[in-house]
Amino acid sequence: MGDSRSRRYRLGTGLLTTLAAAALVAAGCSAPNSGGSTASAGPSSDIPDKPSAPVSLNVLDVAGNAQLTQGIFDNFVKEHSDIVSKYTISTEKAPNLAGKLKAQEDAGQLNIDLVLTGTDGLSAGLAGNLWTKLTPDFDSRLSNMKNYTEPAAKMATLAQGYGVELVEYPSGPLLEYNPAKVTTPPTSTDELLAWCKANPGKFQYAQPKNSGPGRTFLMGLPYILGDSDPKDPTNGWAKTWDYLTEIGKCSAPYETGTGNTMKNIANGSVWMIASTTGWYINPRVLGTVPATMKVGSLKGFHWVTDAQYASVPKGISKDKLSAILNLLQYMLTPKQQAITIDKGYFYPGPAVKDVKLTDAPQASQDAIAKFVDPSFDSLIANNPQETSLPADAQVTAFGLWDTKIGATKK
Fold first, then answer.
1. Which of 13, 33, 128, 258 is the S-S candidate for 211 at Cβ 3.0 to 4.6 Å?
2. Sheet strands (E) in 92-237
3. Cβ atoms within 10 Å of 177's Cβ, excluding its own
4. Considering the entire predicted model, what is its pTM?
5. What are the CA-CA distances from residue 221 to residues 186, 231, 398 (Å)?
């Protein structure tokens, strides 16, 4: 989903520390890289099967992924303390990722060992040449990637070998609404625009560069509107840019993250927001959004699938890269993937084959049974699924949105 969410992490072996945005400009104040050999990783043949000593991993999460995977980190440390002795997870907004990494890499003071990111942060890192190549260089050590589901396998290609996909889901675009205020929800883009004009300031989506629902709304419109090339935001999105311009005249201000739009629909300041399967389910499970909210879709929509990845910054030590490769292989086992079902954040998930809902913890099973909308399985089965834009096109789309759309609303 890409945006760093405000959520309740489990605290344990993985101490969770939230980074303030201002701290990002002071990379040298971060905890020093620790554990194992300090020599930077070289060719794949140089990376040992296991680190020479257990390492401590500093993980940066810019996607809210730790909600899905922190239990897996905990399990790995418990079962493989000879590889990873401990880990910390810090959080930050995706748009700040590239600048932080570049500053550390240029200074030779790398304090981040692993990044959990959506397609937004992944794309920014690719554009900045900030990631370590993982596949096909380490295919034999990441063999569980062969077990991806078909949609996950397609999304894995967006990493271009510089990230390992951890979770995947159909995503959106969907519309979440307050039924007490929206008695006849729109079912087409024309109806949505008309509703927005009749209810100014009551429809909202967040900035696409830091929002999964905002991103899928942006990338999903070209399919709904019949644009000439849904994969080309520069030359193929004429209808989309016109539509976003028009709906921008009546929509609420663009929030900096999805979490804020959820707060706004919960407190009644807006009545309808861009959403996804996971964003509809998870905040209602957590109680941050009333369970009474409803969800709908627009005629002719295509799912724009979303995924989250683990990427390794350049300059990582050989021992730490060895530990990370062992960790990532472990994270893609069916038993551990069942943990990612969690509270529906990436419904239906997971990313690998042969994982059933009944394999998930009972709390996850109960949450899915209670909070999943009955329409979701039919919508997933009967609507086309498209991958998100490739990295370069995604960066371009975000930039065009910023200048064409975002800059026009103060």
1. 258
2. 114-118, 164-172, 174-177, 203-204
3. 24
4. 0.84
5. 15, 11, 14
